[in-house]
Design a protein that fits this description.
277 residues; three-stranded mixed sheet; 13 helices; binds iron/sulfur cluster
């Protein structure tokens, strides 16, 4: 059984994968610091309960996590477009470029090969430890960076929030291994979810610093219709977590104080901290 077959038979994260053809590889990006956006996939199998990508892409939430499209001709399109399109390329601006199916498809890896060939500048964002597989290519991209999203240091809590993504412990391993290979790595702490204990936050930030993060980017929860109910439903098994969510999920003061706390801890650890977006 290939790794793709074994992934598709994973009952915990059922997904349909379609191979599609794109017409354009690189589109203009309005995100700060990025000129162009590159997304080898649409849909996202990580199943994060706080994901707002389907709202932006006008897709239904269930369909977003179950139906993944892989744009298999992107490497060929990139080879042509990179001759004239220049600037910082965001790899994974609307969905994670290291989908679980990427392990078998190698689509993002083949895009990276083109980016290396054309000496492109790239900013990757992922919450998959699979990114460490591509350290050989990523380390050859100068003036580039890899952001690894970590919302909590607690693997069990992450399994509730992000059931089909790599556990945080594996993401930290990936960050360390990329750093050791000379890749510029940063930690994306976001979204802030009302489930952190202060001690977790301290440990989380120490851990990303020790794993080699050059910087921390922080983002708050972006609540969309139906999201609160989904989060509370997932937290049902843990009454204290459910209570914390219910209490703070719409509390602006809570987010302000958590962001201030992150900045304070970062300053104590000598870590640069920036607001995302
Ligand atoms: S990894 Fe990103 S795009 Fe994928 S489900 Fe999670 S938040 Fe959404």
């Amino acid at each position: 059984m290939s790794s793709l077959d074994s992934f598709l038979s994973d009952e915990r994260c059922p997904q349909n994968v379609s191979m599609v053809k794109a017409t354009v590889a690189l589109s203009p990006s309005r995100l700060p610091g990025l000129d162009l956006a590159l997304n080898p996939y649409t849909g996202c199998g990580h199943g994060c309960v706080y994901c707002y990508a389907p709202y932006i892409m006008r897709r239904d939430v269930e369909g977003w996590s179950r139906n993944i499209s892989a744009k298999m001709n992107l490497p060929l399109l990139l080879d042509r477009e990179l001759i004239r399109k220049k600037g910082m390329i965001g790899l994974g601006t609307v969905t994670d470029p290291y989908q679980p199916v990427e392990e078998g498809l190698l689509l993002t890896r083949r895009c990276l090969e083109m980016l290396v060939k054309h000496h492109a500048r790239v900013s990757v964002l992922t919450k998959s430890s699979l990114v460490a597989r591509d350290a050989d290519l990523l380390s050859r991209l100068s003036d580039s960076e890899v952001g690894i999203t970590i919302t909590t240091i607690d693997d069990d809590l992450a399994a509730m929030l992000e059931p089909c993504a790599s556990p945080p412990s594996k993401r930290l391993d990936a960050m360390r291994s990329l750093h050791d290979e000379g890749v510029n790595v940063y930690a994306f702490i976001g979204p802030i979810v009302p489930a952190f204990a202060d001690s977790d936050l301290d440990l989380l930030l120490r851990s990303v610093r020790d794993a080699g993060a050059s910087m921390v980017m922080i983002d708050r929860l972006n609540l969309r219709p139906g999201m609160k109910a989904r989060m509370l439903a997932r937290a049902k098994a843990d009454p204290s977590l459910e209570q914390i969510l219910e209490l703070h999920i719409e509390d602006e003061g809570y987010y302000r104080s958590m962001i201030a706390r992150v900045k304070d801890i970062c300053s104590g650890l000598g870590l640069e901290c920036r607001d995302a977006f």
